[in-house]
Amino acid sequence: MKAPVSHYLLDTALSREIDRRAQVELGINSFTLMEVAGSSAAKILLSEEKDFNHGLYLCGKGNNAGDALVVARYLAQHQIKATIVFLSGIDDLSADAQKNFELLKKFASPQILTIFESWDEFNPNSGFDFIVDGMLGTGLSSNLRGGFAKAVEW
User: Fold this and answer.
1) Which of 7, 70, 85, 114 has CA atoms 20 to 30 A from the CA of 121?
2) How confident is residue 55, by pLDDT bands cut at 50, 70 and 90?
């Protein structure tokens, strides 16, 4: 039995190679790739689950955080609350993640969007219907530290 392409798991090298080829060979910039990934994930959530109203988004500083912020933006347009926790602050976000953070703040009302700039500011006892992992992507080559370790342990 062969799994459908949508169920493939990619290792770090293959994931990076696919991104590189999309950008270099096809001319698709990283912001567009982020938009496609995040909007596709949001569409899947909306089509498969009808009974949720609050998501938790755990974000690092890189493009994986940007992907999560795109998901939050699309779902916020459907009045699904978003709690964003930046595990290592909001300074030095990747350019694309920063752009998506600004877009999210423009699209989501204050009643929908809650932002924490660290894990320590956040109360993890709140109830959430789902969690989106925008922490690290494919770049981790050391042990988890700080807010990342606390979030994964939680």
Assistant:
1) 70
2) very high
